Amino acid sequence: MALLVLKFGGTSVADLERIRAAAAHIKREIDQGNQCAVVVSAMGDQTDRLVSWTREAAPLHDAREYDVVVSTGEQVTCGLLSIILQDMGIPARSWLGWQLPVHTDDAHGAARIVDIETDQLKTRLKNGEVAVVPGFQGLGPDGRVTTLGRGGSDTSAVALAAALGADRCDIYTDVDGIYTGDPRIVPQARRLDKISYEEMLETASLGAKVLQTRSVQLAMVHQVRLLVRSSFEPADAQHEDGTQAGTLVCDEDEIVEQQVVSGIAYTKDEAKVTLIGVQDKPGVAARVFGPLADANINVDMIVQNVSGDGKTTDLTFTVSDADLDRALEVLKDVKAEIGYEDLRGATDIVKVSVIGIGMRSHAGVASQMFKAMADKGINIEAISTSEIKISVLIDAAYAELAVRTLHSLYGLDNA
Amino acid sequence: MALLVLKFGGTSVADLERIRAAAAHIKREIDQGNQCAVVVSAMGDQTDRLVSWTREAAPLHDAREYDVVVSTGEQVTCGLLSIILQDMGIPARSWLGWQLPVHTDDAHGAARIVDIETDQLKTRLKNGEVAVVPGFQGLGPDGRVTTLGRGGSDTSAVALAAALGADRCDIYTDVDGIYTGDPRIVPQARRLDKISYEEMLETASLGAKVLQTRSVQLAMVHQVRLLVRSSFEPADAQHEDGTQAGTLVCDEDEIVEQQVVSGIAYTKDEAKVTLIGVQDKPGVAARVFGPLADANINVDMIVQNVSGDGKTTDLTFTVSDADLDRALEVLKDVKAEIGYEDLRGATDIVKVSVIGIGMRSHAGVASQMFKAMADKGINIEAISTSEIKISVLIDAAYAELAVRTLHSLYGLDNA
Asked: Model confidence over B211-253: pLDDT tens digits?
């Protein structure tokens, strides 16, 4: 018998049929004697609809009223799932953010959970009642509804699992786990049984939409074991030879057979900015990146080429492609202060990353990577590394080739 | 300077354009120095959509979870209107049912308001802030969301006006007031400047959809003056020679020139049941109407004809046409107990009513009515009266003729 938090995202509760499928998964856990608290997202595109209404009402609007409007999406799912569970003979009730309450700070629209009161909930769960909690919402210190920012339902689930001391937090989504590579590009990609928090963090920050970065951080801090699994798999699916459904995101100590590289990720949401003929003197980096930081533009990889004459240099860096136009505007505005000859932006690039906690203890992962790229004639435009990740920026045309090459290089291909 | 409660129904907040129009009406009142608390319904058909989801989830469902789902409709409008008001430079904030709170009893899905806490609200209103309150919802003694049943937003507005001691409660809707007759049938119908609570009650219970019966009762008890007006009229419309917008529903003492008859109403939602050859002996009425009452079927007009032989009689009565099939079933089931020869049901009838508080002091209103009907060859199948109302049941084919005849008879036609 285990205490579980089950989280169902937007596609897993898109309509009443999908909510019924979610209820069947919950029923299976209850039938196995588990205690279940459930966190739900809004149905399908309801949140987008509500958000667009607030924008249409006024482009700049009171975040407190935005929260009043947008939090209703999860509330609706919450009531409907409770009704469906009851109809299946499972005692269930909804617990809205202000009812538990889920205490957050006062950053309306992007609040952080401070504390979740769970005394009542624990008693109910012990009595076999399912608690259905709307994700993404809480109660601010001002006594008003807060929302956690987009994707916040994962965070709600992890925070609730931490507060309850749950044995596991099952994240039901539209994919059946975390893969060694994007199966659309690498047909040989394998689903991982386990992945460490650190690896998952790198994967999430590289654009994998499966889990929100913040929820993984929270899970790591509180040591909440996350199981990423598909709500589209039948609730009564039998897994051959006892293999588990989904991928467990857990502490690395729980992963017995650690591989050097656990996966290859890539992201297309990158744009490259190049400043040509920048004066090569102290303080120039501050004059370039200061204004970008002021404009809230996040800079990722940075490469500075030493110039031939020693007086000017070329400076290349990447930003999110959504920020490219704004970044170019900012740099045009401060051209006089920086002093550069030319400014170029490009989006035909991708970032390909190799991720694995094994890298910490294995040398040579990077050099293998660079050699493989060179062998395929792929030019590396920039490199960035962390303890458990190596990312390279390359021409978008070579994205698939690079991902497949690296997937094979590190022995990730399916046997 | 006055303290006003403004209520905007579903068609008056159907979309963002309509919500903006509502905001313009609120702005006019604020600009005139009034304090405004606003009660809103859900946008257009949102409530129907939410209700149908709960039914689809499970035909028989927990009313507490129904309330969780359905109350979100008003919450959305509430946030959006607050955003739009703020955008127009008017300080505004939403106050959800659980935040004020609006205390109700525990009859989830059909709760009654017990008390509304208004201390905070009064302070805010005095400071020129508009309070936007979702209609139709409250907080039960169980600490959970309640809803007041369909059409409850009018009741919310009146209860809030009573709690605040408001000078007036303005009900914005899609008609511009209460008419002496249905303008679609009687082109000469006039809009009334004032109508008494009692008359409005009779009109509402006769199927006029403008105000909910319960909200009029509440207004009468608490002496809340209601102004029924159109949100579709431009906010800055000028009324010639100072005539007011809409119809004021108020105490009869406030109506200086009382007319004998204030209006002619009719309702098609009637069905007639006739039991032929019923044994004419004591206790038969109980045996007929007891089972109907047990089945929650409301019986309106009753006529019993004395039979020729003194042993059997025919019994005719009306029920709502929605209840007809059920009423016939119930009576078939107890045929042996009642002892009747034949049972007939018909829906081709209408109830036409003459309403006016002046009737109390004027004799002859009924006899005038019966004579006028006879002159037009209209057969009266049943009659029911109250202190301020006379209703007759007639063949549906004569509905328009009867309404126009009576409208003219009592001097209601436009000059």
From this structure: 888 899 999 999 999 999 999 999 988 776 666 789 999 999 9
Tell me the two tokens of residue B246. Answer: 């809409």
Contact A80 B72 (CB under 8 A): no
Closest residue on chain A to B142 (Cα) = A99
Nearest residue, CB atoms, A84 vs list B58, B60, B75 = B58
B70: closest CA among B144, B130, B7, B1? B144
Give the residue carrying structure tokens 């002619």: B264
Which residue numbers of A have CB closer than 8 Å to B's CBs? Answer: 16, 19, 50, 53-54, 56-58, 60-62, 64-69, 72, 75-76, 78-80, 82-84, 86-87, 93-94, 96, 98-99, 143-145
**Residue B243 CB: number of other CB atoms within 10 A?**
8
If residue A333 lies in a helix (H) or strand (E), which one and from where to where? helix A324-333
Would you list which residues of chain B are within 8 Å, Cβ to Cβ, of chain A? 16, 19, 50, 53-54, 56-58, 60-62, 64-69, 72, 75-76, 78-80, 82-84, 86-87, 93-94, 96, 98-99, 143-145
Separation CA A23–CA A82 (nearest Å): 9
Tally Cβ neighbours within 10 Å of residue B322: 10
For testing contact with chain B, the best of A53, A66, A87, A146 (most B CBs within 10 A): A53
Whether residue B207 has pLDDT greater than 70: no
Q: What's the whole-model pTM score?
A: 0.86
Q: CA A325, CA A241: separation in Å to the nearest integer?
A: 53
User: Which residues have CB under 8 Å from A182's CB, separation 6+?
Assistant: A189, A265, A266, A403
Q: Quick check: helix, strand or coil at residue A284? A: helix
Report residue B161 CA to chain centroid gap: 18
Q: Which chain B residues are Cβ-neighbours of A13 within 8 angstroms?
A: none
Q: Quick check: helix, strand or coil at residue B369?
A: helix
Q: ipTM strictly over 0.90?
A: no
Interface touch B65/A53, C-beta < 8 Å: no
Report the half-sphere exposure of A390 (CA within 13 A, side-chain side).
19
Contact A54 B99 (CB under 8 A): no
Mutate to test the interface with B, among A75, A78, A82, A88 (most CBs of B within 10 A): A82
Distance CA A249, CA A196 (A): 6
> In A, which residues are within 8 Å of B99 by CB distance?
143-144
Contact A301, A317 (CB under 8 A): yes
Question: Which domains are delineated in chain B?
Answer: 3-253 (3.40.1160.10), 258-415 (3.30.2130.10)
Pairing outcome for strands B35-40 and B3-8: parallel
Number of Cβ pairs < 8 A linking chain A and chain B:
110
Q: In the beta sheet, which residues pair with residue A134?
A: A40
Give the whole-angstrom CA distance, residue A104 versus residue A99: 13
Q: Which chain A positions have a beta carbon within 8 Å of B78's beta carbon?
A: 68
Residue type, B113: I
Q: A-chain residues within 8 Å CB-CB of B69?
A: 75-76, 79-80, 83
pLDDT digits (tens, 9 = 90+) for A234-291: 998 877 666 678 999 999 999 887 788 999 999 888 999 999 988 877 788 888 999 9
Q: Using one digit for the tens of pLDDT, what is the confidence trace for A165-224?
A: 999 999 999 999 999 998 888 999 999 999 999 999 888 766 567 888 889 999 999 999
Separation between Cα atoms, residue B184 and residue B99, nearest integer Å: 43
Measured CA to CA, the distance from residue A157 to residue A170 in angstroms comes to: 9
**Percentages (nearest 5) of helix, strand, coil residues in chain B:** 40, 25, 35
Query: What is the edge-to-edge ordering of all strands in the sheet holding B299-305?
Result: B299-305, B312-320, B270-279, B342-346
pLDDT value, residue B9:
92
Here the tokens at position B340 are 């009747």
